[in-house]
Task: structure prediction
Amino acid sequence: MISTDAVKKLRAKTGASVIECKKALEESAGEEQKALEILSRRGADIAAKKAERQIKAGLIDSYIHSNQKIGAMLELGCETDFVARNENFKSLAHELCLQISATDPQSAEELLAQPSIKNPERTVQDLINEAIAKLGENIKIGKFIRFEI
Result:
């Protein structure tokens, strides 16, 4: 039997639904690390299914470093204005701006393959896949630029 506390803990770490967390814990016999891997795989599967869906909305976000010598601007697309206004989507956009400022990727493909600056065990693509699974819409990186003086 999977405890409610274990489900809550996994949900807090991943943002996945209670049901998905419970299923992952049951499938992994209560082992949290295996459950995290299961949820990650499911997120990638969900992202693959939504990849062909049309991007019609999104937002533009920016980040300026405290020294005001490095900054980034990003266009992040999603399917609806509802998701574009969601705090999780806005947070993802800002995290991507931080990533761009710190690593200076030359293309979206390079950005997606990079380890996250906040959690090097996960790639930027993993972060986007998790957001797609959580928000239920396709998410795509559009144009971005990094400035440095």
Notes: The first strand starts at residue 57 and ends at 64. The chain has two domains: 4-50, 57-148. Residues 4-50 form a domain with the Helicase, Ruva Protein; domain 3 fold (CATH 1.10.8.10). The beta strands are 57-64, 70-78, 140-148.
